[in-house]
Amino acid sequence: MHLIRRNRILRQSPAIRAMVAETIIKPSDFIAPLFIVEGTGVKEEISSMQGYYRMSIDLTVAEVKELWGLGIKSVLLFIKCKDELKDNKGTEALNPDGLMQRSIKAIKSACPDIVVMTDVALDPFSIYGHDGIVENNEIVNDPTVEVLAQMSVSHAQAGADIIAPSDMMDGRILAIREALETSGFTKTGIMAYSAKYASCFYGPFRDALDSAPGFGDKKSYQMDYANRREAVKETLMDIEEGADIVMVKPAMAYLDIIREVKDAVDVPVSAYHVSGEYAMIKAAANMGWLDENKAIMESLTSIKRAGADLIATYFAKKAAILMAQ
Ligand code: PBG
Question: How far apart are CA 133 and CA 49, in angstroms?
Fold first, then answer.
């Protein structure tokens, strides 16, 4: 054969492949989610997220230092609220001495340079396990947004760098931005969960925080997985309302959405590689059906290739360790 173009030339050795690789993941691409519980010295494995833990503040601080040492620049905090503190209005979410607020302070004082992001939604604090206030079996938008704005200010007061509203209420980004401005927090960022789908892949996360909805599902506020154009609409609105970073969630089953959003916006795009996606890889690896390390690198690279600038992933630490080898 006399071929003019031989594509295999650029695939023939690890060196050549490294030279022409289009997508390279790095530890600073990752946002490490952390689950925090009350107590000291507490480290509980989450049964549906093997190898992932709920930790008390002291152990979380040690973990954060380790993550920072591995080159990870950001953590995303979730707390497990005690049952007796839950109500319908998320009262505990505004407690200046609540678990979230204490966690933010402890992390920022031990590791001041790391970017602390905080989840803003009512579900961990809600007796109903919903992201908003419930009235007559409905999740009511406007009263919820008021609480979310106050919650965001409370996180900013504790030292959060970036507020991450995951609730999908309408108008919350503008309300949060205005509340932050009014309170003088002009350097606090907002990472909006803009295209967050009503997904079965959040199951293990809800085990982790004991936050599964007590009735119904989240389809009246989270997006229908049948929709793509709507993701762009949601995202553009959040940017208009003041989002600094936008997010698509989940990631692996939504790579088309990540690309669509990436092409439509001029702000950084993040993607959330969620708990169910973590659990699937873990389960298959445990059965000996997948090589876990290879599955991690391929998944995270695919998410970045699709257009994610940042990836929230429970594999952040493991991937950073693999990359350092
Ligand atoms: C709650 C929230 C959820 C996740 C992040 N924030 C669950 C939900 O919406 O029910 C899911 C994260 C994951 O599955 O890893 N507002």
Answer: 28
- Lining ligand 1 with CB less than 6 A are 119, 121, 123, 131, 166-167, 202, 205-206, 218, 274-275
How far apart CA 263 and CA 257 sit, in angstroms, is 10
The residue whose CA has the least distance to atom 6 of ligand 1 is 166
Residue 29 sits at the vertex; the CA angle it makes with 266 and 115, to the nearest 5 degrees, is: 90
- The per-residue pLDDT for 308 is 98
Cα 66-189-49 angle, rounded to 5 deg: 45
Write down the mean pLDDT value for the chain.
Answer: 97
Q: Is 10 exposed, middle or buried (0-12, 13-18, 19+ CB in 10 A)?
A: exposed
pTM over 0.90: yes
Give the angle 8-9-13 at the CA atoms, nearest 5°: 95
* 196 in active site: yes
Question: For residue 123, how far is its CA from the centre of ligand 1 (angstroms)?
Answer: 9
Mutate to test the pocket of ligand 1, among 193, 205, 218, 254 (most ligand atoms within 8 A of CB): 205
Is 304 one of the annotated active-site residues of the chain?
A: no
Question: Which residue do the tokens 């970045």 mark?
Answer: 304
Distance 6 CA to ligand 1 centre (A): 46
Which of 86, 89, 218, 249 is the catalytic position?
Answer: 249
210 — pLDDT class (breaks 50, 70, 90): confident
Going from the N-terminus, what domains does the chain have, and what CATH number goes with each? 23-324 (3.20.20.70)
196, 218, 262, 282: the catalytic one is: 196
Q: Which residues touch 184 (CB under 8 Å, ≥6 apart)?
A: none
Distance CA 181, CA 279 (A): 39
Tokens 């952040």 locate to 316
> What size, in residues, is the chain?
325
| Whether residue 111 has pLDDT greater than 90 | yes
